[in-house]
Specification:
single chain; 575 residues; mainly alpha
Amino acid sequence: MTASGESRQDADSDCEMAASAEQQGEESTTISGAAAPKPITPIPKREMFVLMCIVIAEGFAFTMVLPFVAFLVIDFGYSEEDVGYYAGFITSCFFAAQLVSSFFWGWLSDVKGRRLVLLIGLAGNAISNIWFGFSSNLYIAVVSRSFAGLLNGISGVSKSYLRDITDETNQSKCYIYRSTGYAIGMAAGPLLGGLLARPIEQYPSVFSKGTFFDAWPYFLPCFVSGLINVVGLATGFVFLRETRNSSFAAPMVDSNADAARRDADSLTADDTPAHDSADERGRLNPGTQSRSVASYWRRLLSKLRPGGRARSYAHLDEDRTTELQSDESIELDLSQSDGTVTRDGRTTQKDSAPEKEGFLARLKGVGKFGWLSIGLYTSISFAWLAFDEVFAIWSLRPPDEGGIHFTPADIGIVQAFSSITMLVMQVAAYVPMDRKFGSRNVFTAGMLAWLVSMLAMPFTNLLTSYTPALWVCVCLAYGVKTGFGSCAMAAVTLLINNTVSAEVTGFVNGLAVSCAAASRLVAPPLAGSLFALTANSSLPFPLDFHFVFILVALVSLGSAIVANRLPTSVNFRRS
């Protein structure tokens, strides 16, 4: 494709997206209220279960250090006044490494497959977390967390994997399953991190002074995190199947005959695979669907041989596409020599193979709405981590200095409760909200809820004399932030996936994670430094310990305003 052709394609992408959204909107009641909704594609249960196991391990590894990182810095010999600076530095070095590596992992997942990258990320988490448990100084802590960031491509690639196995009818529900796994990890991470850190002090009847855990007081939670990632790695290695055309396809654990029976049974007249949507494969005439299914089953069985290699989703897609093309009732023509696909009399440009596109061509393919969605993902990532960082430091301070004098176990309990709130919100509320209002409006509502939560949190200092009321208000404010924030995070992830083509999803999600990593790199030291500067000063309200909370609230408000200006076409996948 020439440079001018690429420019014209990029310029027309937004118009094509809007036209596609109008056509899809006529078929769905989710946004427009039309009378004939699309049938919902069944959930790919096996793939979602394995993906949940992977993100549980990822969530645990990420949040486990938060309750005790401030105490770790104090044990290194730094003063309490400097905790904000160095704790923020330890947290941010993970994102500095992720900033460098994320879109490499995204590109690699497009070319070599999602499975390879996910397994490398789990192995890196296991090694780096155990290494972090042996941190005897700031340098070891920084290097081990940076190592984790360099090898971790799970966040972006798991979203790309999710897009591969879903379509528009079930993507929001499947994303909730992924987020549920992440919520479980995020709930268990801070809870066990706070409860298992410094075991000599917390459980003197079980752990004695002078033992291994006295010399390494933070090893126990780090070891548990590493073990959980090893379990996730083993689960992924055995059960995770590839969704791209790759030589790294996972071996099936069942026999070839069982695999054939399972795949054939999934191809009924009303139940097509999640990765084989009508929009992507063409539409079958009702009268010939059963005949096509039967011939596909016979074709699949005829290809099986003893000791045969596992077949990825991409291989099954190729077989199914070949079979559908041979059926005269299929309204799909892939015979165009100029790289076009004709469907129902309409001709559109096929996307180039990702491995043949240059870096600049991929960036141009993101489009205006794609960049805005990445920007929203970056802003929510900044606000989320800045709030968590400041909360962990602020809550340790005594009441006369603006804090609430929490312990690491107290912080872990609050964060675990908020993760449970996130789980409840996603399971009970997100899917209905997304279907009724669309991802754009869900994100906007989540950011407005953040505005209220973050402004309210520092004022809970006024309730330190009333312990039950303090706990209720702190948990409520933090729960609103996490519950509505998780819905906003789910919504913006779908916005990113909707605004790009499937062939470059890995690259774009990797790019989004890199941009988010840049914001997360800045957030902890910036928020921690600003908090240390303002909280230790004699400046009046709002320039005292309230200042950083207000700053993060303003970021949330700005994100809500930008999201509200996006067109409704971003609620639908790009054609």
